[in-house]
Amino acid sequence: MFRAVTTVDAALRALDELGPGAQVIAGGTDVMIQRMTGSLSKSEPLVHIGRISEMRGVSLGSESITIGALSTHRDIRTDPILAAHLPSFVQASSTVGGWQTQEVGTIGGNVCNASPAADLGAPLLMAQATLVLVSSGGERRLQAADFFLGRRQTALEFGELLTAIEVPIPAPGSWETYIKIGRRSAMEVAIVGLAARFVVDGAVSAARLAFCSVAPRPMRVPDAEVSLVGTMLEDEAIAAAGRLCASAVSPIDDQRATASYRTSVVPRLVRQAAEACRSELV
Amino acid sequence: MQLEFTLNGMVRRLDVEPDETLLDVVRERLGLTGTKEGCDEGECGACTVLIDDRPVDSCIYPALAVEGLAVRTVEALSAPDGALSHLQRAFVDRAAVQCGFCTPGLLMTLTALLESNQNPSSSEVDDAIAGNICRCTGYSAIREAVRRAVEEVSA
Fold it and tell me: Is residue B57 within 8 Å of B47, Cβ to Cβ?
């Protein structure tokens, strides 16, 4: 069964009616492949939410930016609000697949699919985003850190729909980036990805470092973040933070890279991000 | 389930299954075999078609999601009398085709690019076709063909 809905209410009714096996599909770039390869069952019904217009688009509030869950990677990479306030989101969406994938793949799909390598997981965690989960019983809000539970596991419950992602507007003096290592520069699943933010007021007053593809779920490294506070991102401070990150991650060997390669890349990404920030702000 | 959409300017109605892809419908049901199946997992771009002018990998796109939309395939690029588009002509003239399997997908992606940006920079061209894999040409002739098509249109 393929149930196409155009409103959130209709989607929630369909999910309640079809029961826990129902699969939500938006752009389909993960769901279709998983149904073809058997990691999702083809006998379960599909609820197509791709045309719920109220769930698409970016808006700027007084304290936060709301990103509709159906905003495509193309929407995100071309959005002026995100370019001005949350460039790491723009950079992350720009590295998801090629144009064809970015045109239909959504931020909500990327997040709910919860691949350990999901590019948007790192900036969501770094930016302390809140996920808005709606069901026929009401609405609840979860921090990104509480949403990702493990490899392809989230806190989303049956009958719930991720409708929006709310991201606090960064403090003045913030600088952020998303850097990704793949085998080539396009069309790659991340071997390691890093979303980094430094708040600089003379010295670093706050730092956030969130990685993808080095653990079952995206992860921050609080020790390394704290170690950078009060520094001017000197070489030795960057190296120390990099070492803390390398010892915190728990990557695996897979077809894209070995765990030891991933671990060796982690401090280099920290250095690349911190040096880029230093050259602009410090 | 019933599907109605526009394919290359013609309204088409047919019954399709929930897991049928747009590629299956275009090639197997409607007999337009210009669109190619390469990787069948949204990585290579050989199956690229335009849905409401946007390039999409049809091999992993559910056919039922194009209800009411306009799909264009490589068959729509030439004029009714068979005259090639500027881009197609440039591909021929610059020998941007070797085995040819990726060519329909590249033509569709680049058609979408040139419709939205009449004078793309070389990095914009490279970014646009990052999702179209060509294992023969090394891309140089493809880039030259795009440049020639741009020059012809603006001449």
Answer: yes
